[in-house]
Amino acid sequence: MNQIVPAKRQGTDLANPETQDYVTMFIEGQLFGIPVLTVQDVLGPQKITRIPLAPREVAGSLNLRGRIVTAIDVRLRLGLPKRSEENKGMSVVVDMAGELYSLMVDQVGEVLSLPEAKFERNPPTLDPMWREFSAGIYRLEDKLLVVLDVSKLLDFSKSD
Amino acid sequence: MDDLLSEFLTETSESLSVLDVELVKLEQNPDPGILQNIFRLVHTIKGTCGFLGLPRLEHVAHASENVLGKFRDGELEVTPDAVTLILQAIDRIKLILGHLEATESEPEGSDEDLIANLNAMAEGRYTAAAAPAPEPAAADTPFPVAADLLAEVEAAYAAGKKAASEAEILAEMEKERQSEAPEPAAAEPAKAAEPKAPEPKAPEPKAPEPKASVPAAPPSPPAVTKAAEPPAPTAAPAGESSVANQTIRVNVELLENLMTLVSELVLTRNQLLQMVRGRDDSEFTAPLQRLSHITTDLQEGVMKTRMQPIGNAWAKLPRIVRDLSVEMGKKIDLQMLGAETELDRQVLELIKDPLTHMVRNSADHGLEGPEERKRVGKPEIGKVVLNAFHEGGHIIIEISDDGRGLNLDRIKQKAIANGLASEAELDGMTPQQVYQFIFKPGFSTAEKVTSVSGRGVGMDVVRTNIEKIGGTVELKSQPGRGSTFVIKIPLTLAIVSALIVECANERFAIPQISVLELVRTTNSSEHGIEMINNAPVLRLRDRLLPLVSLKKLLRLQGDTADEREETFIVVTQVGTYTFGIIVDRVFDTEEIVVKPVAPILRNISMFSGNTILGDGSVIMILDPNGIAGATGESGMLGGAQAAESGVVREGRGDAKTSLLVFRAGGEDLKAVPLALVARLEEIDVAEVEYSHGKPMVQYRGHLMPLVSIDGSTQFRDEGRQPVLVFSDRDRTMGLVVEEIVDIVEDRLRVELSTGDTPGVIGTAVIAGKATTIVDAGYYLPQAFGDWFGRPDQEYGADDHQAPRILLVDDSPFFRNLLTPLLSVAGYDVLAVEGPDRALALRERGDDFDMIISDIEMPGMNGFDFAQAVRSEGRWQTTPMIALSSHATEKDFERGRQVGFNDYVAKFDRDSLLQTIATMLAATKGAA
Prior knowledge:
The structure holds 2 protein chains of 2 kinds. By secondary structure, chain A is mostly beta strands. Chain A contains 3 helices and 11 strands; from the N terminus they run βββββαββββαββα. Chain A has helices at about 75, 130-135, 150-155, and strands at about 20-25, 30-35, 40-45, 60-65, 65-75, 90-95, 100-105, 105-115, 120, 135-140, 145-150. By secondary structure, chain B is an alpha+beta fold. In chain B, strand 28 and strand 29 form a beta hairpin. The longest helix of chain B is centred in the N-terminal third of the chain and has 26 residues, at about 5-30. The interface of A and B includes residues 50, 65 and 154 of A.
């Protein structure tokens, strides 16, 4: 969590409105990002209560300072294999229409300010499942960042 | 001040401030949602004014509503002129309210100018030029008395607003300073306000009078100031404090946060206690104990801030109904049951309006006038019953009337007229489906729009409001017999006591309210879980209890129940359906705050919510209704507990019953209600003995006659033969069957009645297969009739000594079930399907030794029936027994009050027979 600090502060330059801030996270080596303002908390490993009969991607629920948060395993949601035992993982808590959801990822990285010029639509060759949850791609110098569409990620009405 | 009035003022001022904002929004963006909200607010104001006897307010609101209605229907365009006019009306309402608050009565005067404009607007012939700034009404009064003076001041403010905002500010300042330091500060700002507020000049000549009545007023300022000022220190602050200062409105979110903090505090306290518990001589013990007490008190206090008895929402209903009855010339009896049922304040606020609407609807549309009632043979006084109770983690509120019921044809016409459905579609719908149309926006079947209701505001708003808090509303209606609305609200945010259980290493909470008892079984104990074709059952005190494995139901992984040394069974009741939930362990009970589950999980019907336990872990709350539903039993037996939203079941005919399906005397499937079967046994055919040519076995120290389904007893050559054991008091009979197939829960709707075939009630579709429903009652006399050498013919009509019993039950199934049962017991039984028929027998002069009546019947229910019997006629002293699937203490009490001598739960044959015997003996002894 400590990495979220100012290393890139100059990127949030107010004079440049064409940048967006993203909390970055890693799943299976792939870099993902979600807009920083949607993020409420970043959590380490938590005690999670399983919810029987829930969709497979719902890992369970947890208690975050008296509020019940539903944990979503983003790996499973993206059609990736389950996380290995030794990787405890981290979570990003987002607020969605007043409900809190905890997105379980492998690791949470720093906050990046990304210029709009580097944003691109999803390439049509992207896996359909990913295409649904991806709002677009940022071209970074050394890798690509997939912007997660949190509202689609949490919309389970279609997947059932 | 009258509570009702004060509440109205608080509420209306809130609505008005919302209206201001919303109207402006509407002007910028004519969105139907905003319009609907405005319309509803104005409608509510209008409605309430009508009941409080405030004609001026009512007329202004009514006229505004007309215009808004035209907006809504698209007949008028939302123009700035129109909005201005509506705003003027709102201002007028505010003005009148100000006067009301001060004097508790409407100011005199007329709003005809404004109303005329509004009506002109509604008719589409309004032009902006015709709209003068509204003259403050109070200015029309030439000689105001002291009480009216305040209104003059108010009027001045109102006028000042139009003239210049400066005057308004000054006037506000004046008012404030007057209340703080009346004497020196008051005069000055009032003077400053003087030139801008011309109206106060009117009372100038009367100035000495108020001065005399309020001697504390400053003596010297100019006359104008006096006119404005003297009432201020008296009437105004008093009025304000009486309404505004009694309560403070706190944001629910703030309470919610407070609640969370307190929960955290409790957790920390618990941890501390845990740490200190190990050490006896700790110096922390005493202060910690104190901390503990305070924390508990604090927790209770905070929780209490959220809970209110539902009676608070009902408080104004009696008055509304009374006024309504006067206005409509109806006689209405409003009964309110369960007013003490507590629910969350937020929920309460949200259901208040819907409830008022529904009661109003019931009284206005539902009930007929006295003449019409007399004509159709109903008591002149119509009844509206409100009943609230907790059930399985929900609060159920029933609003029922015994009026004319919904008019199916008119709803159909209206649905076609509104383009909601085509005629062909309607023809294919059941009445219940058609009734659902009344929940559509703009749907009203009232022939004329009254000031009470009938504008199509109402049912759609009611439904929306209830669904907003996760509730459902259902409707049952019978032509000529009345309608019942059942509102089911989850106990979201409400506190319940819950039993914590464990299954496959996961913990769950079960609402304590639906738990009847806990049974511990071990593999070695004699009361183990038995299987009937993979369906687990438990023998529990001469009954077979169907069981549900929580692990299977929730598809949990872990060690199976078979491998466990001991398991626990949570005996759960939903409506009248009792079943057991198999769990691994049972912990303590805990007070929990039910929180709704995340939206993505709401489709899982097994859970009613989730909560955080004292140790900080999240736990799912099981929904017994959902579990019952998943096992096929919807808990509808009681008739009142509708389970699924949107679908309204028709009476008990559709209720699900547990049935034991078996084969005997042929390949076809046969079934008996499981509740009638005392035990399932397998007997060794070698043990069958014969006496008088009748087969029997020695069973539990007695002889048990064996009866076969078709008379020709065919035992297997060897091995074991399944037998259904029916028990009737101390007698036991075994029905020999070939194979026990399954236990299923299904609707028992006998579709083919086989008429004279003895021992058969009819044929029904059970679990998708045609199944013969066996009349267990028929086989009892067969066994014992023969056994005791008394042929059947000795029972029944020939036996004049037999006490006569009148059985009133609308369900053919129960009539068929009980008639033979009672006949066997030696009574002469006459069964009728409803109180009407029963009362007809009374008129005819029939006499009975006893009346047994069902409670839940369409139209006149058992309570009403008992009242009718007790009120007059020849049956006044005839003992009466109520028979009901609702067997709570409250029902018992109610039953006794209306005249039932006793109350027996349906299916409880033993106590029914015992009660009959005891009561007849008592009557005979007394005679």
